[in-house]
Amino acid sequence: MSILVVGSIAFDSIETPRGKAEKALGGSAQYFSIATSFFNPVSLVGVVGQDFPQEHLSYLSSRKVCLKGLQILDGQTFHWAGRYDDSYSDPQTLSTHLNVFENFSPQLPESYKSLPYVFLGNIDPLLQSHVLDQMQQPRIVACDTMNFWIGRKKKELLNTLSRVDIFFINETEAKELSAEKNLVQAARKIRRMGPRILVVKRGEYGSLMFTESSVFACPAYPLSDVVDPTGAGDSFAGGFMGYLAKKGASFEEDHLRRAVVYGNTMASFAIEDYSFNRLKSIDEALIEARFKEFSSLTGF
Amino acid sequence: MSILVVGSIAFDSIETPRGKAEKALGGSAQYFSIATSFFNPVSLVGVVGQDFPQEHLSYLSSRKVCLKGLQILDGQTFHWAGRYDDSYSDPQTLSTHLNVFENFSPQLPESYKSLPYVFLGNIDPLLQSHVLDQMQQPRIVACDTMNFWIGRKKKELLNTLSRVDIFFINETEAKELSAEKNLVQAARKIRRMGPRILVVKRGEYGSLMFTESSVFACPAYPLSDVVDPTGAGDSFAGGFMGYLAKKGASFEEDHLRRAVVYGNTMASFAIEDYSFNRLKSIDEALIEARFKEFSSLTGF
């Protein structure tokens, strides 16, 4: 069964201490879709302008990404520009042109409404709720957000979170949302907001998953060459949800833990190059090989 | 067989966002010794002043810490004062009174010179080398340092490192020492300086161990209440070396990995209270229980 993803589709202009990429393909919905597509079909809801390359739509289709929910509007595609410093975390935004994304209102094709797995990418929490309003009892609803919404639309975000099962969030955002300095206490508080599963993303330090009765820690894959961290979080979510959907899983602890490791696996590929360049060059065998490396990375 | 430790013995005055401790017992050699003593006997080389409490020396003796190498000199014991901010990392030094530590020259009792395991705590690298000059072919030499020595005595530190098997270092210090921004590349470079085993300590993110052919990642134990991070690194080294010595280990990968987990275990206890307060209240059963929790924390 296909996974529904709603999120941004963008051109990203990226600067890092080592180089730059101009108007590269990006956006949460795309990173998620491509990462997920190695595990499971995806149904995408998003918006692009007339400038979006047709050959890339063909590529997405070739990866079993259903584009029935894609709106192609008059105007330009969302364009974000950002710069990373030496830490390769928390990019500085240089410019944001929302363009057709500004008035985006996600409309679900009829056939999407009964999909069992949902990923609400990082968009306005009002829109995230609007998507859920259109769904018929999905089995698992996962969600991402960012500091922008925590600061500006906290009430709406809390409303969305009350309807979410799995919540992906950065460490600093988790502390901001919960107003707690200690991450364990932050996690406890956020889980009380709704999500039974909380996955805290810590960049190069990996991730922590908090459930009702357990904590699971997974390191990041140790890369000697990080090119562009953009899309790491959405690739993580893509690997995570893709694995769950492929397994037909609900909330079984062992599936959730492996989903975290597949999330870290996909994120590690995403950051090895700009845009989807590395994700487009890998295959299932490479993914399995790296997944297995996490066993030797963590076993004792 | 006993482990030789050389390092500081101090009074620490600590301020954190939550509270303070005045002239609490501390210092690298003490944290190391107490953590190690749960696994293996320790032989301590260090210096204190006339103000050092006799009852604490009795406590150390009761924990099988041999004090034959302890110098008790006229004057005051080393006194450090520092303050932690909300991040509970990298304390700001408020004052340093070296006192009797200023002219410390480690002299090894005859019976110490043939000990098989050595831990060189964070002191002047010249003194670390001076200790090694007195040793007869130890099986494993481990070493710690800090940014102060990297900045001021790099040549002497490199000389020490060329004689060291296991090197414990903080993440920021590893990057500083290697002049590399990427940790994997930093580790590669530092291992070429001498140590076949490099353990990078990352505070609340746990630790990474780099060997010739592998990387091992171990998370920090997720605590909901961190009181005072002082001594975490030396308690880590204490658990690590104590376990190796108890096992009579050399460089077997499985022993080294478990040593890392015991290191994280002891560090997690140390930071639950000021000074050695928590370390003094635990026992082997509690240590084993927490060690086992790392399996459920990381298994998938």
Characterize the structure shown.
2 copies of one chain form a homodimer. In chain A, a hairpin with a 5-residue loop joins strand 11 and strand 12. By secondary structure, chain A is of the alpha/beta class. In chain A, helix 3 packs parallel to helix 5. The first copy, chain A, has one domain (3-298): Ribokinase (UDP-N-acetylmuramoyl-L-alanine:D-glutamate ligase, 3-Layer(aba) Sandwich). In chain A, the strands form 2 sheets. In chain A, strands 5-4-1-8-9-10-11-12-13 form a 9-stranded mixed sheet, sandwiched between helices. The longest helix of chain A has 18 residues, at 253-270. In chain A, 36% of the residues lie in helices and 24% in strands. The first copy, chain A, is built from 10 helices and 13 strands. The termini of chain A are far apart. Chains A and B meet through helix 7, strand 13, helix 9 and helix 10 of A and helix 7, strand 13, helix 9 and helix 10 of B.
Radius of gyration of chain A: 18 Å
Structural class of chain A: alpha/beta
Q: What's the N-to-C terminus distance of chain A? A: 37 Å
Largest protein-protein interface: A-B, 35 and 36 residues
Helix count from the secondary structure assignment of chain A: 10
Unreliable sequence segments of chain A: none
Instruction: Name the CATH superfamily classification of chain A.
Output: Ribokinase
Q: Helicity range of the residues of chain A?
A: 25-40%
Q: Please list the strands of the largest sheet of chain A in the order they lie side by side.
A: 5-4-1-8-9-10-11-12-13
CATH C-level class of chain A is: Alpha Beta
* pLDDT averaged residue by residue of chain A: 97
CATH topology title of chain A: UDP-N-acetylmuramoyl-L-alanine:D-glutamate ligase
Strand content of chain A: 15-25%
Biggest sheet character of chain A: 9 strands, mixed
Total number of β-strand segments of chain A?
Answer: 13
**Structurally, how many domains make up the residues of chain A?**
1
The succession of helices and strands of chain A, N to C, reads: EEEHEHEEEEHEHHEHHEEEHHH
CATH architecture of chain A: 3-Layer(aba) Sandwich
User: What is the quaternary state of this protein?
Assistant: homodimer
| Shape by Cα distribution of chain A | globular
